[in-house]
Design brief:
Number of domains: 1
Pfam families: PNPOx_N
Shape: globular
Oligomer: single chain
Helix content: 10-25%
CATH superfamily: Electron Transport, Fmn-binding Protein, Chain A
Protein name: Pyridoxamine 5'-phosphate oxidase family protein
CATH architecture: Roll
CATH class: Mainly Beta
Radius of gyration: 16 Å
Structural class: alpha+beta
Order of helices and strands: HEEEEHEEHEEE
Length: 154
């Protein structure tokens, strides 16, 4: 099998930012304080710096995220993956989300948490580490962000 040449880091960063801007859903992995994992697909809104998600207050994702403050996010498929380690920046009650933000989330995702009968808070997530690769030839240089700082200009 022939693989295309590895993308330079700046191109991988641009491709990753494009995914964050245009993808609607991703896999979100949390764990309880003892390490019991939980994986759930959720829709998200990227604002250029953070991801915004919403899920039921009773959902393990919400409970574990608030307990540990950490989450892992996977976008794409196994031959074009973006993996993000993020931290919880803030929890926003549904009633406190600015209209502009709530409207943007609903427009992008097709889901409006403000219309739910039960509590669906929003969670703002700040990426701390971002990695992206397509094939084995892109494993070297897959780190695009560490400690919240992008390596390449974008």
């Amino acid at each position: 099998m022939t693989h295309p040449p590895a993308r330079p880091q700046a191109q991988r960063t641009r491709d990753t930012l494009d995914r964050l801007e245009h993808d609607i859903d991703a896999w979100f992995a949390t764990a309880d304080p003892t390490g019991l994992p939980y994986l759930m697909p959720l829709s998200f809104l990227w604002d250029g710096h953070t991801l915004l998600i919403s899920t039921a207050r009773t959902n393990p994702t919400a409970r574990f995220l608030e307990a540990t403050g950490t989450i892992k996010i996977a976008l794409g498929h196994t031959r074009d993956v973006v993996l993000i380690d993020a931290e919880l920046r803030e929890t926003i009650p549904t009633a406190d989300i600015p209209d502009e933000t709530g409207d943007a989330f609903a427009a992008k995702t097709g889901f409006d948490p403000r219309e739910q009968r039960s509590a669906y808070p929003y969670f703002r997530l700040a990426p701390r580490q971002v990695r992206a690769w397509r094939e084995a030839n892109e494993l070297t240089g897959r780190d695009l962000m560490t400690d919240g700082t992008w390596f390449a200009d974008h």
